[in-house]
Amino acid sequence: MPTRTALYERHLAHGGRMVDFAGWEMPVQYTGILDEHRAVRETVGLFDISHMGEFFVSGSGATAWLDGLLTNRVAKLAVGEAQYTLMLNERGGVIDDLIVYRLGDEEYLLIVNAAKIDEDAAWLSTHALDGVTFTNRSDEYSAIAVQGPIARGVFETVFGTALSTDRNRVAAISFGGAEGFVVTTGYTGEDGFEIVIPNPVASALWDALITAGAKPCGLGARDTLRLEMGYPLNGSDLSPDRTPLEAGLGFFVDLSKDDFIGKAALVAQKESGLPARLAAIAVTEKSPPIRPHYPVLVNGEVVSETCSGALSPSLGHGIAMAYLPAALAKIGQSVEIEVRGKRYPGSVVKKPFLKRD
Description:
This protein has helices at residues 8-13, 33-42, 62-67, 117-126, 151-159, 202-211, 219-228, 263-272; strands at 3-4, 17-21, 24-29, 45-48, 53-58, 82-88, 94-104, 107-112, 133-136, 141-147, 170-175, 178-183, 192-198, 215-216, 276-283, 295-298, 301-311, 318-325, 334-339, 342-349. The chain has 3 domains: 3-51 and 139-228, Probable tRNA modification gtpase trme, domain 1 (Gyrase A, domain 2), CATH 3.30.1360.120; 54-123, Alpha-Beta Plaits, CATH 3.30.70.1400; 275-349, Elongation Factor Tu (Ef-tu), domain 3 (Beta Barrel). The protein has 8 helices and 20 strands. The longest helix has 10 residues, at 33-42. Helix 2 crosses helix 7. The chain starts with a strand and ends in an 8-residue tail after the last strand.
């Protein structure tokens, strides 16, 4: 039976259509994906992201320990800052992509993907180091994302103070007598914030955010929003068999660090040349929605399959991502995507699909 978040009853009360997602019973939509997508792009939407995991790391040597396990340079973070990073296997493949938040000199919060909580916890525990304490507190916390152009107004209404204008920040916050964190890392391409708060006050916070004007949104809109921005999804666009270099995430890999798990494989791959690249594909003819695992063809031959795909609500045409042979992943490359036996023309474009001012 799927696990339920502390907000499950709230989803039912607002008409959420529940589905099994990574072992969690989550709302895929309330009033409809297009309606919810539009709300985030034009006003403000509200997402339950409590299925994601919360890990805490502390102790002398915590910074160095994380730097040996993650691709980005944790040591460059100031207290109160956050960064996107990846955890790799020895082959350089992606175990998980996550966010690291520096809470203190040697104190960190890691937000990890729902489907990877147990695997990530086991991996970190396997590489335990004396003097470093790692705690999985995912069962204790809920997380709520508020995204959209007027998200800051919602924050001020609920908390009575202004939200930081900086991206990738974390600060302590309290609500209903409970202590938590407000972070500004997002996954939609819009302005906004996320609140990580103990489970007992999650429902009250959810209600307060809705009263302040936020519209409940489900996983369906979250997926179309992130795909329009070209953000990868773990388990679809990221996998243990693909490196972050192939996924176009080299900006978040610091090969100048002394060492980290997977570095040797990335260095070797960079020297030999990437076999494939994760390409953004825009369908140039009206088509049904693009889904994962649809064949991608060049000159009539299947060269790959889609990892992610959707009908973009903002652009009005199909968009997808697929790993193409490096020589075919160049901007402007013509391709076809086969949907139920029919081929639809498209081309490789520069990410993000949706260009923001």
